[in-house]
Amino acid sequence: MMTISILKKALLASAIVLSTTAAYAEDITITVWAGGSNASDSYRMDAIEMAADILSKEQAILGNELNITIEKKRDFGGWSEFKQAVTLAAEAGKAPNIVATSHLDIAPWSEAGYIVPIEDYLDLDAWPINNIYDNLLKIASFDGVQWGIPQDAESRPFFFWKETMSKIGYSDADIEALPAKVQAGEYTLANVLVDAKKAVDMGLVEKGYGFYPRASNGPDFAQFYLSYGGVLQDPATGKLVLDKKAMTDMYQFFVDAVAAGITRKNHIGTDGSQWYADVANGKVAMWHGGTWHYGRYTGKEGNNDFFGTIQFSLIPAGNEAGKANTITHPLVYLITNQETDRAEEIAAQLINIASEPRINTLHAIKSSHLGITKQQSNIELYSSNRWASEATERLLPHASSQPNHLQYGAFSEALWKGLEASWTGVQTPAEAIKEVEAELKAILGDELIIR
Amino acid sequence: MSHNFRHWPIITILTIVSLPLIIMFAFQIIDTFTTHPIDSMIPNKVTFEQFSFLWDEAETGRANIWQVTLNTFIFATTTAVVVCTVSMTTAYALSRLNFPGRRYFLGGLIILHAFPTVTLIIAIFLILQIIGLYDTLLGVIMVKAALELPFGIWIMKGFYDNVPWEIEMAGVQDGASRFTVWWKLVLPQVQPGIFALMIFSFLSGWSEFLLPQVLAPGNDAQVLSTYMTALIADDTKIDFALFKAVGMFYALPVIAIYLIFQKKLMNIYGGGTKG
Amino acid sequence: MKNFNWLALGFLAPALIVITVFFLAPVILTGIFSFTSMSTSTGVTGGEYLLNQSGIRALADKGLNTATLDQLKNAGYVVDEKGLAALAERHGVATATEMRKLHENGQFSSRRDMERALKSLKANKIRSTKDRKAAAELFKHSLLNERFPTESKFRTAITEGGIPLEDHELIVTQAYTGWVWTVDNVKLLFSLPSTLRYAGNTLIYVTLTLMFNIGFGLFLAISTFYLPAKSASTFRAIWFLPRILPPVMYVLLWKWLTWDTGFIATTLSWIGVAPINWMLDTSTHAWVVVVLINGSFGASLGMILFSSAIKAIPSSILYASEVDGANRWQQVRYIILPHLRWPILFITSYQTLSLLTSFEHILLSTEGGPGRATEVWSLAAYHIALDNYGGNLQYGLGATFAVALVIIGIIASLFYLRFFNFNEMVAKPKIEG
């Protein structure tokens, strides 16, 4: 009894000493901006706030009073407005401390000196970074430097409406076998054209609703370029590659889809809510989207039987030259260049803590994204989610990513311009390719290989 | 005027060509306060639910609507005051005072109007950054006021031009200084112009979208136009009724001002038509 | 006399300052930018010196000899005497001795490997990540991925790294991250196939919208002139609203009207027309909507100016014509229109210039689509400089596009100034001569 109370007194005394030595309190404000984020992506910012709480507690144990205020912002007009805002703010020295953004921004922003490598502050061999999937970590690096930490993972699958598929002659077993057939290259984009046409001709879906692509620019279309054997980056030289044959084939696929009446000529720019409503409830035979669509289909669009109504697979191959594939386009946490090293260090620590499997799982499940660490499969919230585990298994092993290259933005922009022009009939694919080639040659110069 | 003509054909034609606008305005109001079944335009229920953004707590990472409204108000009011004050003096100098280079100044004013200012925005950004006003409301106000100035000066010059010379001559002959003449005698004459310009600049500030978006992206300086575009961009909740409700809230002051000051607003070009 | 000039100066000063800072300076800067390679990656305010893997690859392409290349590439981290001495100073001799025992002369290609080597210390662990990272830097030989703020610092570093002097120039040029002077933007402007399309689009846009503005403005002014005051002001009020409603909201109304799920599509579906997006279905649809949006916005200006000009026509002339038995069309054709000659010319010139440089409504509605069909010059300048999905904003090229517009604007205004009898407009004030 006696000893315990003495111990208590001693502890109390030391606590007082500690608190007096830590008389100075450190107050810091960390701003987090998240691009392309909806209400369901709130944990992109909230996770940092949770991390701040943990970090403050850790520091309190060490006797340091660290008060972190987190300021959050996600309401930008869109991706481009977000990037514009971050770029100009960074140029003015007012950049937010942490940004959650596309990994493609690493190349230009690192060159400009807007961001600092996270590896300056974090031990990459320690928890939780050592548990993050290697391929995701690699996507968050550029030129051999680890600039950021993946914030989530996703993949962009091809979807089939099961009921329509069975009405055009696929048995339940056939539909179950579809993903494997797509993966093996036995079911290709040519089959997509045929089957979607059947669905339109039989009146199962309206004209223009056989194949329903994304309605705006995005990484998704690079997948179709890969499907026709295109290559984005030359592994040997690191240069970007314009494979004219593959690109023409890819444009031609969309032109054929319009000509066959399975895709609308004016599809681009379709209103977002309409797009989701159409695909989630059987108005469309086939489409492609993202793993995070699951949340929207089953949530706001009210599809209560996702697995009973929708089949998903890789993006089918286009021809023998290409393979079935999918692109993952993870967002990454980046820390920006600040006046004080301290702000950068704390930002890095917060990102480190926010990457804890349990915290990241909150985001993954709430927003229907995929996890970033291996241990997430041991967390009930994640493992009990059928979508997260099945999508991870079926898609992620085959996922590639877009290259982190200074000029990739210009490349993808040109790819899209050409596709848009062919699709809407403003130009033929051949004309469009010619213009894309001229434009890319002019802008990229030596950094482009034309095949 | 012209009593020997019948009115109804003109009214019919005008109504037909105005129909799209009338429908838009009408449904803007109807949709804001009602819900309707999908695939129908006819409302079946009156509701104020769409206005819940006004009292619900702001979502993660979204600015508070009242703060944004206050910003918009400060932005529009200050812009209007700056534009009016500067236009008042400058236009008077251009209209009534003689000084070297007056010709070039006037010619320059017309050329300024043709400047694609918004495409110069990178340079404007750089200047704001140098003077430390990037991402502040004050910075955007300065830029907006500057861009409105050529218009404001031009309009005010028109009003001054219409003031009879005799008023000033009389004042000067009575021994008043030129400044006193301007302040005491001429300004009251152009009051309608000042008033119209004030309202016009306020409305223009209230509506401005590109400048705040590019030059003040932070939450602290957000205004209603950027708030609304961000809302529209949020693709988990595309909902025309909500947009319209926010739009209604946004447009309310505009419509109120319009209804009250309609006549005065139409006067805006009252002075400047002679050019 | 003198003090009048001071008064004028005082009256003009605020405007002069504002115009210098926010008009002249930006124009000059934009002119400068248009001859630079400025983009997101170069930054606006200047660069630093940085060698990374991409830079090494580019140097190889530019013919840097392989020996130097290997030297740059493979310097990495070396556990040498210098580093060990520094380590001893910071973490004690024991730590340095253990490090020497484990890794003397060890070479590591990456920082991560160097850190792992430091982690392998058993007896003298460096526990904090921060300290370990600092310790790793002590052994660094590589110049890769390090930013040097000035050229002289960078030159010193490569000299210390033993890079032969004759290769310095090439390396320094490559390593600079900032913008450089170039005429490539002007060349691009003339060689890009899209330039011609943007110019054509602008021509279509300005011509059609202008025709709508003038024609419809005239129609509104004349037709409301013949109406009783009350209905006249009602119609004028309706057509004035687009001008003062916030563009974001005004365009949203048009979207609601023309969208696939919008009013037109829904109404037409009742009579069996399949819903289409009336704004973006084809480029014709897009043009019609763009012209209508901008036209309804712009027509009010014409309406107001023409109305007041018509009111200024002496009513005796109109009465006289009616007595002579002129019908309404003849009255418009022979009396009203001739009186409107100057206002029409004024609006034409004023709005040509406005339309050339305005793109806000297009940005908010079609965003230049479909397939860039409605991408006008000023919108293209905006997209290039400030808004592309890829994120590497091309400030330099965007500036070149803007400068082209400035030049066209100035030429057009000078032309109009000639045309509108400028001398009369700037007639000398009557007091003080």
From TrEMBL, chain A:
SUPFAM superfamilies: Periplasmic binding protein-like II
Protein location: Periplasm
Keyword Signal: yes
Keyword terms, alphabetized: Signal
Keyword Signal assigned: yes
Organism superkingdom: Bacteria
Signal peptide range: 1-25
Any one of the GO CC terms: periplasmic space
Pfam families recorded: SBP_bac_1
Similarity-based family: Belongs to the bacterial solute-binding protein 1 family.
Name of the protein described by the UniProt record: ABC transporter substrate-binding protein
Natural source organism: OCS116 cluster bacterium
